[in-house]
Amino acid sequence: MRSVEELVAKFEDRSARVGVVGLGYVGLPLALNFAEAGFEVLGFDIDPEKIKAIESGTSYFSHISSARLGDLEPSLSATTDYSLATELDALILCVPTPLTPNRDPDLQYVIRSIEELLPYLRANQVISLESTTYPGTTREVIAPRLVSAGFVIGEDMFVVYSPEREDPGNMTYDMKSIPKVCAGLTDDCQTVALALYGAVVDQTVSVTSVEAAEMTKLLENVHRAVNIGLVNEMKIVADAMNINIFEVIDAAATKPFGFVPYYPGPGLGGHCIPIDPYYLTWRARQVGVETRFVELAGEVNRSMPDRVVLIAAEALKRTGLKLKDSRLLVLGVAYKKNVSDTREAPAMKIIEQLEFEGCAVSYSDPLVPSMPKMRDYNFTHSSVELTEDSIGEYDAVILVTDHDSFDYDLIERSAKQIIDTRGKFRDSHRDIIRA
């Protein structure tokens, strides 16, 4: 039996052992999905605290219950020991792909992962990259390292790209129900890819090249970034005309065709939308193409936290206060509602800028009890419990992330001023400041 047929059979009968490299917001749900489908799964991560948590059945993400982890023991285990990769049939890379300070792609985690795995790889394995990246990464970065180790792609090593589509906190779609785009470097690689992911998702979507799969993920996120940039700019225009943009969007959304509602906010967050467009613009420059439309949307979105600070300063000025003499409470520091993920969250830039101006800033976020370690920020704040008295101590509150668990009635009746970046208080009878 050929290697490809052996692997496909193993995925079909669930006898394959699957490794997931990187147990973050993408890797952990993926590992859980494979374990729930009946596979034996081994997770790899450089963070020993994550390994301890998984081994004890304790979730470190608010949207994943500890009970879910506990139910999967012993199908799911975790380690920092890359030598165990030899025992696995599939290795799926779910590592970060951030930007450099110059907003160029930073593939250090992808490269480090494949190079640490390389001494322990064996014939008849599949390597799948899920991290969002520019078209050409799988073929130009992953494959050559495998070839240099003596593997023949499509014969004794199968290389795949299948972009993650994780959406933490989404109660409508989960990993199993979201169609999975798959591509392999050869026809046999593609056959293996469809067997691997077809065992755990309801629908696989085959594309003709890994570059097409890589571009698919970028298009998805650039589409969102550009439309959010558009609606953020429209909000600035509407505010200048004293028009409530949220009312306008809701009215436009009643049209049953040709319009998709996007909503403005304090800026973009998460590991995808603020970052992925720059992977596209960088690659486009390599082939001599300008992406002015995408870059302009990025400029608009990056400017929104500064706009929130400016509006806060103007609001305080009307009450006779300056930022440096004020106490402000930021509500929500996660990048979006109902999750604990603070990566690239606009709240961080807002807090940093307010503190730079001399403002005393606190925050409240039920899903982020204390500020996590971050690459670009070194905050030591802890979340403030919201009570009538605690809210009333601040000169204003700024709603940055509209978690469902906030008591908005309490906030509305207790706050001296409310600066709303999400339109949550659009129907309030109070004089709410839209930002």
Overall description:
The protein has an 8-stranded mixed sheet with strand order 3-2-1-4-5-6-7-8, with helices on both faces. Strands 10-9-11-12-13 form a 5-stranded parallel sheet, covered by helices on one side. It is α/β, with parallel strands linked by helices and 435 residues long. It has 2 domains: 206 residues, Rossmann fold, CATH 3.40.50; 197 residues, Rossmann fold (3-Layer(aba) Sandwich). The protein has 14 helices and 13 strands.
What's the arrangement of secondary structure elements?
Layout lengths: L2 H11 L3 E5 L5 H10 L3 E5 L3 H8 L10 H5 L5 E4 L10 E4 L14 H10 L7 E5 L7 H12 L8 E5 L18 E5 L2 H12 L5 E3 L3 H31 L4 H8 L23 H11 L5 H26 L9 E5 L14 H11 L3 E5 L23 H5 L3 E4 L8 H7 L3 E3 L12 E2 L1
Parallel strand pairs: 1-2, 1-4, 2-3, 4-5, 5-6, 7-8, 9-10, 9-11, 11-12, 12-13
Antiparallel strand pairs: 6-7
Helix pairs in contact: 1-7, 8-10, 8-11, 11-12
Brief sketch in words of this structure:
This protein is α/β, with parallel strands linked by helices and 435 residues long. Helix content is 38%, strand content 13%. The protein folds into two domains: 3-208, NAD(P)-binding Rossmann-like Domain (Rossmann fold, 3-Layer(aba) Sandwich), CATH 3.40.50.720; 238-434, Rossmann fold.
How are the strands of the biggest sheet laid out side by side?
A: 3-2-1-4-5-6-7-8
The secondary structure category is: alpha/beta
Estimated share of beta-strand residues: 5-15%
CATH class descriptor name of the largest domain: Alpha Beta
What are the secondary-structure elements, in order, as H or E?
HEHEHHEEHEHEEHEHHHHEHEHEHEE
> Main β-sheet, in a few words?
8 strands, mixed
Give the tally of β-strands.
13
CATH topology of the largest domain: Rossmann fold
Which architecture of the largest domain would the CATH scheme give at its second level? 3-Layer(aba) Sandwich
